[in-house]
């Protein structure tokens, strides 16, 4: 299908940002004008409170315009990649954003040099909006290297990103898999599909052919992964952190105690429930040797349900009705005002996301095909969009954007509310089993899998911080041991699974996989309270944006991620869902 074949009302309307090319060009010119004005203020940002206010407001306006141009250009490219003008706009916007970043490197340093003066300004009421952003800047002072080191780190930015770029660029060639007498091309996506196949031989071939290539190229991936981790360790040390973990936690105002609590809850205190789930998988599948390539086989037959867009929005209207009339009205606006680009077509980016700017609607890109997964994805992305809508409406631009630490909360709340609604509305055992199974697999992926990944990251960085030389054998042996402990005695872990540590994209990024567990735990806590009629704390949370620290937002809303209760509620929810699923499976 081509984009021109899709009904206009089923595509997003970006004209609210720029109605035509001339408006986009004018915005570029305005950014250059604003940048020129801002650069002229170098050296005099803090000479008076009035000058400080003018500068902060000007910088906010510049950043707001930059976001409009960059987001618009990328979103157009995601759906119209073959349009030459779209590609030209994307390249121009990227170059302009880099130019702005390079020209404004003086700002933070100048504000820090005049910290005492700035702090006196912040005590005035007309500077109240700047307090949190500036406090966050000043919080970094103990972790700022000297000017020469800062300059060197800036020059080494591309060098530190090379491992991630290498991982993305180096794609092994996998041997095909025989499926029903024909060869099936193999890559990551196809492998994931084939691990759901009912034929165990197909699953075995897919698993072994895929991870055999990571075994074959293990030295390349080992060098790449260690190079990334060494870069993280070096940057942490140069910024005066004890290690890469502390450096990552610092950004969100979290500490190692919170991180360790997440790992302890998942990997120790409540891990027995996951082992039990694997025991039941082995029993229900009737296998004597449940192994790595069996774990993704659906325990229940997927129900062939199809939803058109009208039925999706009718379901979401009811499922999310506990969030109030305004929330429901916004769902209707999302469709009628064309916030959403629904259908897949030639050239369109895959997957789904929610994105936009302070000045735009909170748009959603999805590739809707009509199954329950499409309905669930729509609920998820609209959760992000509603979070953005309420945050933008309640705050000025510099205080509107929420952090990744809380970014998955609203989307997950929507998914949980949808799942519970669908269970209430369906008495068909097959449909109920499918819904419960989908929720169990989602909970496993966030509550258990991510903390296991985080444990591997911690170990790797600790080894390097202690100056130990690591080989591929060291990495894969530890990962195999960790995996066996993770799955428990019911699973016979395949020898090739130890090379999975080289295929996980998150291992080539910074520490943040634990945030998925925090987000899911907090979302389950909110969803439980919402279903009991306690909605106001959650709705207030949606308005906080970037106006205060993300942890403070959760504490204020009664979901303190430092307390055990949030995680206990989440892991008990997993057990309750498992119990309900088990009863249904037993008839």
What does this molecule look like?
There is one protein chain. The protein is an all-alpha fold. The strands form 2 sheets. The chain has a 3-stranded mixed sheet, with helices on one face. Strands 1-2 form a two-stranded antiparallel sheet. Strand 4 and strand 5 form a beta hairpin. Helix 20 packs across helix 25. The radius of gyration is 25 Å and the shape is globular. The protein starts with 20 loop residues before the first helix and ends with a helix. The mean pLDDT is 94.
Topology (elements, then pairings):
Blueprint: H1 21-40, H2 49-79, H3 84-103, H4 106-113, H5 115-122, H6 131-139, H7 147-155, H8 157-169, E1 177-179, E2 182-184, H9 188-194, H10 200-216, H11 218-238, H12 244-251, H13 256-269, H14 271-285, H15 309-319, H16 325-336, E3 340-341, E4 353-355, E5 363-365, H17 372-394, H18 404-407, H19 409-425, H20 429-465, H21 472-487, H22 514-531, H23 536-542, H24 550-556, H25 564-585
Parallel strand pairs: 3-5
Antiparallel strand pairs: 1-2, 4-5
